[in-house]
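Page 37, continued from 36.
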């Protein structure tokens, strides 16, 4: 099985990041409203406070829910669908929540050394990133557009 090319994957990620940005803005508004109250949305959450740490965790959970939810439910995010890509396991079966969590965690590890784990797809003969190999999941061209 050959993975989709890295430029196509990057284009799909760019599309998804536009949608994820809107999601994060809405999630932040909900969090601030819950912490500060709906009547005083001008109030800020001080940096370094437990509420600011909670916001970071809440936003990470929202991002995970966006990506993993689409991967598990449909096999693709809206950006992946636009570029005719699909996420599958190495055995071509759909992802389950554990696979999605592993992929996200390993993607963070791939990003730590200046994105080297992502850039590896340009060098790899099978176009796989580090997190593709570690999570045993891969983004392929969708045979059923």
């Amino acid at each position: 099985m050959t993975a989709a090319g890295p430029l196509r994957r990057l284009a799909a990620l760019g599309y998804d990041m536009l949608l994820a940005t809107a999601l994060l803005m809405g999630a932040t508004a909900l969090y601030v409203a819950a912490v500060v109250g709906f009547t005083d949305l001008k109030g800020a959450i001080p940096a370094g406070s437990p509420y600011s740490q909670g916001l970071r965790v809440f936003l990470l959970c929202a991002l995970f829910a966006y990506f993993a939810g689409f991967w598990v439910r449909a096999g693709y995010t809206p950006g992946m669908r636009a570029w005719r890509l699909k996420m599958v396991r190495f055995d071509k079966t759909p992802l389950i929540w554990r696979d999605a969590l592993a992929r996200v965690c390993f993607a963070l590890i791939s990003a730590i050394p200046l994105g080297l784990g992502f850039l590896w797809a340009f060098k790899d003969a099978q176009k796989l990133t580090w997190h593709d190999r570690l999570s045993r999941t891969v983004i392929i061209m969708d045979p059923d557009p």
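Helices lie at 6-36, 50-73, 78-82, 97-111, 116-123, 130-135. Flag for discussion at group meeting. Residues 6-141 form one domain.
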